[in-house]
Amino acid sequence: MTTEQLFRLPDLGEGLTEAEVLGWKVAVGDTVHVDQVVIEVETAKAAVEVPVPFEGTVLKLFAEAGSVVSVGEPLIAVGAAAQAAESGSGNVLIGYGTKDEPRTRRRRAKAAVATAAAPAAPAVEQAPKVISPLVRKLARDNGIDIATITPTGPDAIVLRKDVEAAIAKPAPAVDGERIPLRGMRRAIADKLSRSRSEIPDATTWVDVDATGLMEARKVIGVGVLALMARIVVAGLARYPELNSTVDTERQEIVRFKAVNLGFAAQSDRGLVVPVVRNANRLTTLELAAELTRLTELARAGTLTPEDMTGGTFTLNNYGVFGVDGSTPIINHPEAGLLGVGRIVDKPWAVDGQLAVRKVTQLSFTFDHRVCDGGVAGGFLRYVADCVERPVTMLGGL
């Protein structure tokens, strides 16, 4: 005798309440075992693979690829012997197996995932069989797709009048493509909208001579982002007001002791913000290593929700996109974001003489509730001085 066991979308953690189905790894009738990955879903934080906590035969798949499932809704029904297998731990939080084994999160193209739950696509109607070269040319010259024409001649022959009728037919109304806001894109939209509606932000900026920074990069052997991270952390130690958030419910400013430094990174899922935890406790080389590790995870699409939450301040090197400046939106609920533009050769006055130097623009967007312009300007000026003279910050480290 078999019993039907229902596996529901488990608690996602991090306040997440739903996920989009990317695709199924199994089909109805397949046999599954404990801890076998059966579905890949995308939350607002990451794409993850979900294991099933019992074994048996797949009886039903409840969700199609592209659908959004809330926590607690059924995913899969499995017919198994009287009770669930007890070899697993039952830990079915997204991204974790039910055994004590390494987690796997592989980002895969949606088109490559087999979607057993999805309905079969309708058959594509074949193009007309016969058409004369002259009629074909007439259609081509007028931008008419032969496959869209219904032939009226015998044996599916497309006649000249068929093409002329298609030419005379009014063009359909222009309608843009509609793309659902789901997964990470929706999370980004919600977060940015909330930031704009809740945070009274202000932006200040300054042009700086980054020649010294570029020289230091060669000597130390790390990237510009790592050096900027080191400088930002040093700046927050001097201006702790900026390493904070505003608790609107309790009307309090919360200052953090640890600097959890977020940084913008490009991935195939869009712009993500991995977080270097306790950046204030890391050396410059350790910061560089952690930035490299998280950047590689972002590019591979394997960042976990934990990798992208808990930030207290964000660094954005938008100069990699070839732009000089920006007025970015603060990464809610943080209180500040430092942006770095591209570093280019420009004329610059040095000791009264004109010279060609490596110049960049720094922009600082801050929550005006946590500080006034004096603090924000002091922070930005300190960061700029460190960029121009990296040895400046050594005295405070």
UniProtKB/TrEMBL annotation:
Keywords: Acyltransferase, Lipoyl, Pyruvate, Transferase. Residues 4-79 form the Lipoyl-binding domain. SUPFAM superfamilies: CoA-dependent acyltransferases, Peripheral subunit-binding domain of 2-oxo acid dehydrogenase complex, Single hybrid motif. GO terms for molecular function: acetyltransferase activity; lipoic acid binding. Residues 130-167 form the Peripheral subunit-binding (PSBD) domain. Its EC number is 2.3.1.-. Pfam families: 2-oxoacid_dh, Biotin_lipoyl, E3_binding. Its cofactor is (R)-lipoate. GO terms for cellular component: cytoplasm. Belongs to the 2-oxoacid dehydrogenase family. This is Dihydrolipoamide acetyltransferase component of pyruvate dehydrogenase complex. It comes from Kutzneria buriramensis.
